[in-house]
């Protein structure tokens, strides 16, 4: 076996400098069959990059029974030497992980939280409890779970091995790429030599230093800031409260911002904002970090440093998330500041969005035009997340003049008047992005459906993800209220002609007209579908509403065609 396979280099802006570090699992390199046969094998989907985005896509495809190959240049999860990275996972991501079968592992390892407190100096400016907010309080998953990113990646790897269908190829670095009307070809370097592989569809999940941007001549809108931070992952003898604490002006950090979160393994993530001209080597030196921690938690607080690393923010957004046969997702498509947990979570949503579309097209149940909607929907989400996080970055490090005047006024008012709290921007917490420009959604659709509970016909409890699992990757039509005989006949015809499963949703005592029915005694399912009265909601496999309506008529047929890209194909 050749010994010239280079170790994986850092692929993001984090740089490990101090601490005991994290122990990451390692996976064996298995020589691919192409090396022995010398043949160039064609695969329907090739995913490049085994981070949280690529693994979410691979797991989603495996659950839907789609064969795929995932190529990762390393042999582990996380990034060696920079393994801490993302920690805060939103309700929408947790709902996706529930559908994929890894949520229970995440919940057992991670830390749930819903209370956040914001301070300016010694004063608490305001607090919130996300469980009391309508955007979060009906789902079976909590508003957030804090857990080190590499744990989730490891759980996804375990699940992919359980499900099959996806070939995980470790220590496989893509060194060249080309595509044409007939397909895509990738050159892969491994410890046992190089080979070529062909694909119908290629997904770039390699991260912010993606080579596919260059290979596809993809243009990027970017903005580089000078905001510098330093992470300290630590354990304490004196345990702080399990809440998200944010200081806009921390007196123990030279009146700069600080974040404080608890993660798995009883490890705390402390983010310190540094001066713009701060020396990364100095601010991450162990004695400097310990001095900074002592100022915040007291000299008597015992501290074990697990991981320290400086980093800087930038924002990028690729202008087209699809180039021919290549789909960009995660940090390959956009890079945002981590305020409000809008980074890795959007990559998870990218994967969830594309997976069902690829599966439906590959099964021949949707037109290839459906794949156009991936860019339409996820680029809108990317641009929104870049905009929101850039605004937070400017609030936390305002320019002298009007911006600083506004921030000082907002903080001063918020201490005394509730109306001003909305102006204190320490990160707008991520929610599922709406789709308002999608060719695959009707004007009545485009909103996410929470994983709320209902009752099966036998009285047992179910959740929305159970219905989506029952639908088997097809569209799910929920019809609320009575069904006349003519409606039942139309629905049977629809189910035979299109990949759609139909369910009647009833109140507690309403008589059922069909065998496939559930009960929604508290109206949670109706509310999650953004409905009122007798109506129907057409749900996609990614738990987004494609369309809503009131009658089982031609409008429903058109909505189904639209959600499968058939109207685009005809046009």
* Secondary structure category: alpha+beta
Low-confidence stretches: 10-16
DSSP strand (E) fraction?
A: 25-35%
Q: What is the radius of gyration computed over CA atoms, rounded to a whole number of angstroms? A: 25 Å
The number of helical segments is 16
**Spatial separation of the terminal alpha carbons:** 54 Å
Shape: globular
Helical fraction: 25-40%
Taking the sheet with the most strands, its summary is:
8 strands, mixed
Task: Provide tags for this entry.
about 575 residues, alpha+beta, 8-stranded mixed beta sheet, globular
Describe the structure.
With 571 residues, this protein is an alpha+beta fold. Helix content is 29%, strand content 28%. Strand 25 (535-539) and strand 26 form a beta hairpin. The longest helix has 25 residues, at 372-396. The termini are far apart. Pfam families: FAD_binding_3. Residues 44-386 form the FAD-binding domain. GO terms for molecular function: FAD binding; oxidoreductase activity, acting on paired donors, with incorporation or reduction of molecular oxygen, NAD(P)H as one donor, and incorporation of one atom of oxygen.
Structure in a nutshell:
The protein is α+β, with helices and mostly antiparallel strands and 571 residues long. The chain has 16 helices and 26 strands. Strand 25 (535-539) and strand 26 (545-549) form a beta hairpin.
């Amino acid at each position: 076996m050749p010994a010239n396979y280079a170790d994986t280099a850092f692929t993001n802006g984090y740089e490990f400098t101090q601490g005991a570090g994290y122990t990451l699992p390692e996976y064996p390199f298995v020589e691919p069959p192409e090396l022995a046969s010398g043949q160039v094998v064609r695969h329907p989907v090739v995913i490049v990059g085994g981070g949280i985005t690529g693994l979410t896509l691979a797991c989603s495809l495996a659950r839907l029974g789609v064969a795929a190959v995932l190529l990762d240049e390393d042999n582990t999860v996380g990034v060696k030497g920079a393994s801490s990275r993302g920690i805060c996972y939103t309700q929408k991501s947790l709902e996706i992980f529930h559908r994929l079968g890894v949520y229970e592992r995440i919940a057992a390892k991670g830390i749930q939280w819903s209370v956040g407190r914001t301070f300016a100096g010694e004063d608490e400016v305001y607090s919130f409890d996300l469980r009391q907010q309508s955007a979060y309080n009906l789902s079976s998953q909590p508003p957030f779970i804090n857990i080190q990113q590499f744990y989730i990646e490891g759980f996804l790897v375990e699940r992919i091995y359980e499900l099959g269908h996806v070939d995980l190829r470790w220590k496989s670095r893509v060194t060249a790429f080309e595509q044409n009307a007939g397909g895509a070809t990738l050159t892969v370097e491994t410890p046992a030599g190089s080979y070529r592989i062909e694909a119908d569809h290629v997904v770039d999940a390699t991260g912010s230093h993606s080579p596919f941007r260059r290979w596809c001549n993809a243009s990027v809108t970017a903005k580089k800031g000078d905001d510098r931070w330093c992470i300290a992952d630590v354990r304490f003898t004196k345990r702080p409260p399990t809440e998200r604490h944010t200081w806009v002006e921390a007196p123990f950090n030279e009146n700069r911002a600080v974040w404080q979160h608890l993660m798995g393994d009883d490890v705390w993530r402390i983010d310190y904002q540094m001066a713009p001209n701060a020396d990364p080597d100095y601010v991450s030196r162990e004695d400097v970090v310990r001095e900074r921690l002592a100022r915040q938690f007291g000299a008597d607080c015992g501290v074990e440093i697990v991981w320290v690393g400086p980093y800087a923010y930038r924002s990028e957004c690729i202008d087209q998330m699809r180039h021919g046969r290549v789909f960009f997702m995660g940090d390959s498509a956009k890079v945002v500041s981590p305020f409000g947990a809008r980074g890795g979570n959007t990559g998870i949503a990218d994967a969830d969005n594309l997976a069902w579309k690829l599966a439906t097209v590959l099964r021949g149940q949707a037109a290839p035009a459906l794949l156009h909607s991936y860019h339409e929907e996820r680029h809108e989400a990317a641009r929104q997340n870049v905009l929101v996080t850039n605004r937070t970055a400017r609030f936390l490090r305002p320019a002298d003049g009007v911006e600083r005047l506004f921030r000082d006024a907002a903080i001063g008012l918020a201490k005394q008047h509730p109306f001003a709290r909305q102006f204190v921007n320490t990160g707008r917490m991520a929610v599922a992005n709406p789709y308002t420009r999608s060719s695959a959604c009707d004007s009545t659709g485009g909103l996410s459906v929470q994983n709320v509970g209902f009752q099966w016909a036998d009285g047992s409890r179910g959740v929305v993800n159970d219905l989506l699992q029952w639908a088997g990757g097809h569209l799910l039509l929920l019809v609320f209220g009575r069904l006349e005989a003519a409606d039942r006949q139309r629905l049977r015809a629809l189910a035979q002609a299109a990949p759609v499963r139909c369910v009647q949703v009833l109140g507690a005592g309403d008589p059922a007209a069909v065998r496939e029915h559930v009960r929604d005694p508290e109206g949670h399912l109706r509310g999650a579908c953004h409905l009122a009265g007798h109506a129907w909601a057409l749900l996609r496999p990614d738990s987004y509403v494609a369309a809503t309506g009131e009658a089982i008529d031609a409008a429903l047929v058109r909505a189904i065609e639209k959600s499968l890209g058939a109207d685009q194909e005809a046009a």
